[in-house]
Amino acid sequence: xxKLLIEATKSDIVHxxxxxxxxxxxxxxxxNFIHKLIKEGxxxxxxxxxxxxxxxxxxxxxxxxxxxPKPAAVLPENIPLxxxxxxxxxxxxxxQKGMVAHPAPGNYTSTLVNAxxxxxxxxxxxxxxxxxxxxxxRIDKDTSGLLIVxxxxxxxxxxxMQIKEHSFKRExxxxxxxxxxxxxxxxxxxxxxxxISRKKxxxxxxxxxxxxxHYRVIKRYGNYTHVRLELKTGRTHQIRVHMAYIGYxxxxxxxxxxxxxxxxxxxxxxxLHARVIGFLHPxxxxxxxxxxxxxxxxxxxxxxxxD
Length: 307
Description:
With 307 residues, this protein is α+β, with helices and mostly antiparallel strands. The chain folds into three domains: 4-64, RNA-binding S4 domain (Structural Genomics Hypothetical 15.5 Kd Protein In mrcA-pckA Intergenic Region, Chain A); 83-164, 2-Layer Sandwich (Pseudouridine synthase); 169-306, Pseudouridine synthase (2-Layer Sandwich). The chain is built from six helices and 16 strands. The strands form three sheets. Strands 5, 6, 7, 8, 9, 13, 14, 15 and 16 form a nine-stranded mixed sheet that branches. Strands 1-4-2-3 form a four-stranded antiparallel sheet. Strand 15 and strand 16 form a beta hairpin. The longest helix is centred in the middle third of the chain and has 12 residues, at 153-164.
């Protein structure tokens, strides 16, 4: 990571602890890893070393000089997997909410990759390196649902090509705030990194890529709507950003949402489930479509809205 400067002039970090502010303004750095950087002097405030408990003052200048973290050994872990489909070339797993897809600096355990290494052994593609073996595409930690995993480089390459050419079907279901009046629609708005908060994405014309999401209403519940969404592109946080952009943020989304969810203790994180994936099998070129049931947290919230 290159040197990063953060100036404490925004209300969201002034009077917060240094570790909290850095976590908010960096990507893929865990709190424990940030503590390590602070302790080793790779994070300074106004040119001086500080403790992780340091509280930021207005106009403090944070500098981050992290050494490039060396990939830790990613080890197999005996973590249960909900495998929907498997053959010699690939498998489709139904990821639970709360599980991280692959290791990242400061977080090398309890991920989907650790579980896959235990299940598949050495039979995972190596295209994405030792940190992301087999991972063809990702879904967020707090999104549940279907992920395809490649067991060899040949399958990985052909599956990745389908995603790039937008022929790979990805269909989600979500519950959003607001009553969507149109039964269906398309959001065609470019997505790029948020210039203010590096951990967030936003609709922008600067340093962005085209993003297209189709939506269709399944059922309305007063101030909430159950929707089906289909991705034609695969940008980071695409559904979450697009639905917030048109005024219907996902229920439970603590980054792009309203944080005013009824009965929020039913679940943590956005109410979003990757329910369908469809693709041409890399070995026989036959179309394969796989569907997963809505998870318990999603059904519980629908039941709550029905009551």
